[in-house]
Amino acid sequence: MAQLENIEAIEKRLWKSADTLRANSELASNEYFLPVMGLIFLRHAYSRYLAVKDEIVATLPSRGGKTRELTKEDFSKKSAIYLKPEAQFDYLIALTDADNRAEAIIHAMESIEADYTNLRNQLPKQEYNNIPNDVLGMLLRTLNPEELKKATGDIFGRIYEYFLTQFADQGAHDGGEFFTPVSLVQLLVNVIEPDHGKIFDPACGSGGMFVQSAHFMERHAQDPHELTFYGHEKNRVTTRLAKMNLAVHGLEGNVEGGEAAITYYNDPHEGLFGTVDYVMANPPFNVDEVDADKIKGDKRRLPFGLPGVNKNKKVSNANYLWIQYFYSYLNDTGRAGFVMSSQASSAGRDEAKVREQLVKTGHVDIMVDIRGNFFYTRTVPCQLWFLNKNKPAHLKDKVLMLDVRNVYRKVTRKIYDFSPEQQQNLTAVVWLYRGEGERFVELVKHYIDKSIFEARYCEFSDELMCNPVPDFINHLGKLSQAFQPFMNQLEQDGVSVEPYVDYLNAKGSVEGGWSAFKILTNDLQKWWNEYEYNDAASLLDFTDKDACLKDLAEQSRNLIKEIDLAYKLAARVIELAEANDAKDSELWDNTLLNGRGRGNLKRTADEARKLAVEQLKQVRYFYKQAHWLLSRFPEGKICDVEGLVKLVDIKAIEAADWSLTPGRYVGVAPEEVDEDFDFEEALRDIHIELQGLNAEAAELAEKIARNFEELGV
Hints:
This protein has helices at 7-24, 29-58, 72-76, 89-93, 101-115, 133-142, 155-170, 182-192, 208-219, 236-248, 292-295, 319-329, 349-360, 420-433, 437-457, 468-492, 498-530, 536-544, 549-579, 590-594, 601-632, 650-655, 663-666, 679-711; strands at 62-63, 66-67, 197-201, 227-233, 253-257, 276-281, 290-291, 314-315, 330-341, 364-370, 382-388, 398-403, 409-410, 416-417, 645-649. By secondary structure, the protein is of the alpha/beta class.
């Protein structure tokens, strides 16, 4: 993945191209959705095929000078799919408008299904007949950009997940309910840490829980094939998505679909009950249509009974059916993590009775409050529940309550998620709860390492292949040289050159600030290497006391302000010169300074400024992550933090009517004066909001125009 740092930009570009094709072909999202996902599946299969083919060929046995043919078994050992020539993406790309592309794609899909029984009748086929031949050609080419042809890693797995996200946002299938946001799935996975055995998701949608579990194993240098996946999904189209999602990541799973996979009434995986190591799920919330008569005898899977029945003999709310399924499928040491409606944790009457029994088992582990806008099709808040049948004795009568409604990152006007560091920080709170303080310390050390590392990168960045701050200072020098002759002339002519004087002062401030920044970076690096920092107290000293990392973070922020000011003043000098007819003077090289070419000094200085600023921001960003953890847990031990976390015993839960709502226990965080208010971040949020409103306005205008056309107006 490191070989393709701009994957996010590529994902967005591919999506925009594919969605533009859909709009131009007048296809609805739900008509376009499955065929596109099928082509991404094919493209990824081809990428994996090419990645392992040469290695396989090199090890093939030969007899009498003849090498044996490739087989699907050769590729299965490498988590890849064997593709016959006619199923390979380059073959499909080479087709012309005179060829029947739909027929060729269908044949490719059929050839894969013939070799892989788990994909039989699951890949999209006839759907391609509904897409015009020229649109299919453009779509194939769109999904085959030059920069991805030699990419390594799980690139198309990433793209598959990104397209799922975008289609969910459009409600292209099943109202978008098929997709659980990756951010929530990752937090579930980080907390329950699935590293072996059976994983079960009885409402598996497109299989995101399985994929993220595999990613967790990979991040910890373990083989994801040690996991066995089981799933239920009542929607057959979504079942196909899940199977493709698993295959596109080189995984296999036992996913049952259709009527037989409706968890309320069926248990299609023979021998699975009571043997599961990990349950993860995002079930439908607040369902009120489950037939009570059909399930009332299911004592095994509903050990705490029915959560109320209405006058129509329907279960009044299925939330506590799902919770009992998750609990009862676990083995004696199993863990569960699932998304649930925020109504469930404090629901009354019969639901409260079920919850009481569950709490009394001692197996409710952690409750997490999540703010609204994390889902693509629902704005409501939700909660994450964690059960653990193997809790240590000293935690058996306690539940960790986490209220993280104030922890989020704004992605678009409608969508929030967690940044990778927010994910890690919340997981670190769980480590402290479990007595794993050494992991907390290692994470803080990682942030300090990163902050110092990013500070050194300000001087020279391997990643950016440039010298971010020195390059900008060099541009300031070039601008000064170019300004000087004309500014001297203006001054001699009695014209005020105050902007030029301000610019020179700002340039000096940047140079001075940069010198001080380098000295402190070197000092901190030296101290960090020389001394041991193996507990929270010593780390807190390093980050926030005396000459410390906090000082470096503040210097980086001040240097950003000075760099921005110097550039703005350079632009004012150019304005001053042009207002005084500099373009007509031999002392002013307008082409060099502000010409139309891409290489003019104003433009290249701005590009250098952006690189320097972005690099400097990283220094403070990683300091703030370390500070967030250490300021809340200065001893490196779990403790109550107002508005964030509280360890609650069962007696307190009983006194609160068995409520499991974190916000009821943790209190409200004291209002803080934000000395580090990030104006740019606030402006970014406003920009995101504006982009969203503009996009909606354009979409609405297009709909109105179409309606007028249809009316003949």
